[in-house]
Predict the structure.
Amino acid sequence: MPDNYVGKRVKRTEDPRLIRGLAHYVDDIALPGTLHVAFVRSMYAHAKINSIDTSAALAAPGVVAVYTGHDVAEKIGPVPCASALPELKVPDHRVLARDKVYFVGHPIAAVVAKDRYTARDAVDLVMVDYEDLPVVTDVEQATAGGPVIHEAFGSNIAYKLTSGEGDIDAAFAAADRTIKQRILHRRLAPIAMEPRGVLARYFPGEEELTLWSSTQIPHLMRTQVALMIGMPENKLRVITPEVGGGFGSKLNVYAEEALLSWISIQLGKPVKWIETRRENMAATIHGRGQVGDIEVAFKNDGTLLGLRYSVFADLGAYHQLLTPAIPTLTGLMLSGAYKISAIQMNIVGCFTNKMATDAYRGAGRPEATYVVERALDLVADDLALMPRNCVARTSLVLTSFHSTPRLVSITTVATMKQHSTRHRRSQAMRICARSRGRRARKDV
Amino acid sequence: MIGIGLSTYVEICALGPSQAMPAGGWESATVRIEPTGKVTVLTGASPHGQGQETSFAQIAADELGVNINDVTVIHGDTGVVQYGIGTFGSRATAVGGTAVYIAIQKLKEKAHKIATHMLQADASHVAFEGGKYSLEKAAAAAAATGTSDPVVPVGEAPAGALPEPQTEGKTSLTIQDIALAAHLAKELPPDTEPGLSATYFFEPKNFTFPFGTHIAVVEVDRDTGDIEFLRYIAVDDCGRVINPMLVDGQVHGGIVQSIGQAMFEEVVYDEQGQLVTGTLMDYALPRASHIPEFELDRTETPSPVNPLGVKGVGEAGTIGATPAIVNAIVDALAPFGVKHLDMPVKPENIWRIINGH
Amino acid sequence: MKKAINLSVNGVSHTDEVEPRMLLVHYLRDVLELTGTHVGCETSLCGACTVMLDGQAVKSCTVFAVQADGSSVTTIEGLAKNGELHPVQEGFWERHGLQCGYCTPGMIMTAAQLLDRNADPSREEICHGLEGNLCRCTGYQHIIEAVQYAAKKAAGS
């Protein structure tokens, strides 16, 4: 390729509008007659809904409509899950709760009003009669009997999956030494600086709907929302205006996107919902959420024989688009950069009374690198390789490098100086990272 | 107390072969040259900060020999852009950029055919260089004198009606000439559709495998448990780099999200399932004062999976950094017999370890 | 029970009737249609809503519109003068100090205030000055470089 531009630090064409505040994120789009939506969301992690009284909210000046789960039950399809795993349990999760809520933030009712302040006020006027149910929050306890979130499934296990390669039992049998470490990947919130937001406008004459959404997947969203609300896909137009970050949290089809589209059709007016940060923390997908044990079998000379990672995946109370699939991506990367002949991953995907987890920057893969790299430090430690001396650690890394040309053609050598401390003699090491040739260099 | 932490990773991204994806792993592009010579790129990718309006324009401008200001990249509108999959899994440039690149090759094939016809020459005697289709001799002469700049001045539109391309006696035609001729359709070769536009749906044959090594050097304060970064070094290989500034930005951003995971962030639900970390007052995020001055370097091993050689880098920082950071903190606490720490590692945890609480 | 307010925004006078509880950020965005100032949280943590109020950078989500009665407000839209970018804006463009752009207007306003008060800040002073503004995309390094660029530019070197 001729290189006038490629490979160069070209200033971005996006920037002039962004640095002058002239771009349009979804909340910056103002359509005449727009109504605003605010949600009544569950305060309980697990509860029956005995009744919802919307009369006071409906009577408030400026409130146009209030919709509950029963209003939309037969009208809007379930929130989609695109993962297909063997014997996967998929809860029938609807855009608004009907008889039960199963996580804090679960949307119960949508209030539609003439402005955002009025809509928010009216949320407080909706009376929900909850009957709380026992709560399941610990993944390990969730699978050990006790309260079941989705009764029809009989347990809180969404799926079990074992994947891997090689003879893991033989590897551990042949090991001189093993390490085992419990590792926690706590739930994280992606926190894109722009919370989610949706603006839907229906044209009754043309029977066409335009949906603006802060999303990462406009076309996939168009297909899914069209299916959910029973609209021809070629009459629905999805536009992503400027999107203020995603990190995977907007790689999804959420309840609000289908619901606002449907509401706009009902009312024949543009409707807008902008997520508050509180809603974002509670009802936008979380990342990570794995707890498990990493075990490594190795020889006295540091040769890695086998690696087993057994994990409980905290999926949350229901599935968003890729929820069950994310932990399976961890398994794909468990060899790290190393030659390990036997690898096994055991996943138990569990329901808990929390928001669904899904893809967050790395989507299952940071978990893999983390457990492998932490494990390698533990292996080095166990072999008493001059505790955590990076030269020895690197030797271990290099001798185990999986040296296929495609996967790894790196010589790991990084430059740094080690400061002297009371606890360690000062040592200068020279490590530079370079990618050259097919074999790892041992002259560290 | 000083600690050094190392992390070496290979990761799998540029999602990906459709066999392995739930809803398609390909990506689409349409590239067209308008009658006035402006280039429009419609991408199924859906950038939200990654900068593909710029990087795809860089690719198109180089491939078509035009000024980058004449290229507009459009995304995120299903009424305008052909079906696409979207942006996630570090795929936008590796899969989406490749679709743009290949669409342009298809477009250039057609443009070459038109140029050959208009120049009344043999196909093998017409070469494309610097935005122009030239007869061999003319091409060689142009190369010798270094006249390979794009012809259309930035920001200028032709005044009044579209000019007719004058081909009498010409030895070269700009790609803008070809675009106009393609729309006027007065002198197209037989069996050639008017217009100058190409669409490609690129199906990757594999994922890509970025790799790298990160090293963190931290200092732990024994009185407060505070953790300070003394140095942070990252060497990553994301294949061919289209715009190094954008790549650095992705690595920085990824590393800081790792710092977040390692040292600050956790979503906390209590036993009643109440979301305790319900606002940013309780969910800690890294700020400018928390980060070290990153030292980045890279190697470029072109990926064999796509003609651009791009692997993707959006998630690499988040993958490589977290273990380096925790390894470093554990290393710093080695004198206390610490072998492992749960994330987020907070000063309080460290203080308790140091003070035996 | 609305209250009349009178204020100048980016040099233009406005008179409006607002509810006492209306946040300044909503007044700017929804009434004046200056949507460059963004909302990123409800707890005054993120800084995306930063504007200048009588020359001082404030988080406009934590100021009521009525509090700005009689004051002069500058938003991101008013930073560039006569079509010329403020040095901080230029710095952000030159040094790739933004990716999604959502935190950017607030970040730029804070940085502009920082340089107003300290024309030659150290890296540490820049980091400290930006502590009130969150960014999730850039990892801050390019933002810091953008401010350093702006400081040099403003100093004319």
Observations:
- The radius of gyration of chain B is 27 Å.
